[in-house]
Amino acid sequence: MAVIGEGDLAPDDLRWASARELGRLAVEAGFRVATGGLDGVMAAASRGAAEAHAYREGDVIGVLPSYDRATANEWVDIVIPSGLGIARNVVLMALADVVVAIGGGAGTLSEIAIAWQLGRPVVAVQGLGWAGRLGGQAVDARRTDVVASVGTATEAVARALDVCG
Amino acid sequence: MAVIGEGDLAPDDLRWASARELGRLAVEAGFRVATGGLDGVMAAASRGAAEAHAYREGDVIGVLPSYDRATANEWVDIVIPSGLGIARNVVLMALADVVVAIGGGAGTLSEIAIAWQLGRPVVAVQGLGWAGRLGGQAVDARRTDVVASVGTATEAVARALDVCG
Amino acid sequence: MAVIGEGDLAPDDLRWASARELGRLAVEAGFRVATGGLDGVMAAASRGAAEAHAYREGDVIGVLPSYDRATANEWVDIVIPSGLGIARNVVLMALADVVVAIGGGAGTLSEIAIAWQLGRPVVAVQGLGWAGRLGGQAVDARRTDVVASVGTATEAVARALDVCG
Amino acid sequence: MAVIGEGDLAPDDLRWASARELGRLAVEAGFRVATGGLDGVMAAASRGAAEAHAYREGDVIGVLPSYDRATANEWVDIVIPSGLGIARNVVLMALADVVVAIGGGAGTLSEIAIAWQLGRPVVAVQGLGWAGRLGGQAVDARRTDVVASVGTATEAVARALDVCG
Fold first, then answer.
1. What residues of B are in contact with residue A106 (Cβ under 8 Å)?
2. What value does the mean pLDDT take over residues D17-33?
3. Considering only CA atoms, which of B139, D79, A95 is closest in space to residue C72?
């Protein structure tokens, strides 16, 4: 599961708590958690994943834009310092079996649109940002499903399990 | 100028005519025209560019997803068969001084979001698709401008000249 | 550890056996094994890794050129279907802490040269191909080390442990 | 034509003069000149291209590793600030119809190896560096040709015209 969302959240932002819970529940449910490896939602989801009871080393993947491993947040096990800049978002979406978005600005929006093109199921947590705006909608007509809209991290993981069948 | 929009338009679609006019006017105004090099809006804008009076060989650039030059539409002068798949969209946005969107599905949406991250001015032609939906809005709060909303190809080029100083 | 080498070896090729042994010993020594995810040396190293006693699910990473997960060999745990074509070689070298080459044609040569630019230690198993030709040499003057030359998989892993300190 | 070689040559290096002459002759012969857009051989070839009598604006392409247009040398007309880091070398090789190497360290070596994989004809100017070492040789057995070895810029362009037939 890829978890996407803003990189500059304050740790007291509700989305930070939501992403951390999402990371934890994802690993409890048997997913690995992949993110862009940096801060905000990425760090929160990585931290949650690493705190899960079911966590095993290797469950947290971070695909960095730069070649600099030191930019990864401390909970990433498998650092992929791609050096690809923004194009690393395509690699992240491609490696995901399902994508869960929390909040999100232009980076998250681009990732949702890329995931849609690649046929990846997308789940959006209701709230601020592009996840909130796109939940329940189709990005375009090429697919018959929609960006799933869920209210909580628990529902997000349940939906992810459904679509990953 | 990068021109973006759907790749599977019928030639009698109004967006095809609009993209062709846009390509022509862009070259008359002194721009090169870069696209994803394939069909639909990409082909229309490339054709229009090649039909401009001011056209010089080299004015039409196509950044292809595959390594196969033969997939470029016939009006592309400088074929960049990137082999990068969807990540070629990032290269296209990066090389543009300004981006003009006509219609558009998930691919166009991802490009607008990437252009926004890269600080490229974005101009959207009113109408269907993501260009129509995003015109007049900010993609997120990192920039103080908005996706410019224009009604015609003529206005799009005028706006592009404005923002490119 | 990234293991690189030819993708079209016959399973009875000595390099296949060597790569399998290398994958196994790498995991026994505590490394993850990352490859280009396809056949030949990539499959052999992945298989060896998966057969190690110390193997844990997640130890075998494959960075594919296409978006098609089904092209990964059966021993890859973490499939990264990058869609980047040949540029996936850069991602593979970037994620490696150390690179071990066995045999190798132009693809392997490009990877060694990229690893060199990225400052990754490179270990070459003596024998045919570019690994054999470059072992003991500097690729250029920017680094003071050389491509380490070793005779066996056992020595390769020992050297990898040394340089990853 | 892509011209590749070291990025940190002194302007009084013989390879600088050779690359400048090569850029000039390439444009006189009807080629566009594409490079990595930075300094050394890249700047020299770009400058030579821009000084050709047959030069038209648009003949000099630079594919930069960063998103920063300001890193391009002053003779580049079409700046492609790819943001792809070292992976921009793959884009450069892919867009070339023929590749000419002068001197060269690990970057040039990786480019020759990538061009070989992509089926691009490669011409090497005799002398120092990887161009000198690989001239006259096959990179691997997948192709029946060799890296052409030439003594001068004039011969390089003649050979490039031959192979681009």
1. 113-114, 116-117, 139-140, 142
2. 97
3. A95
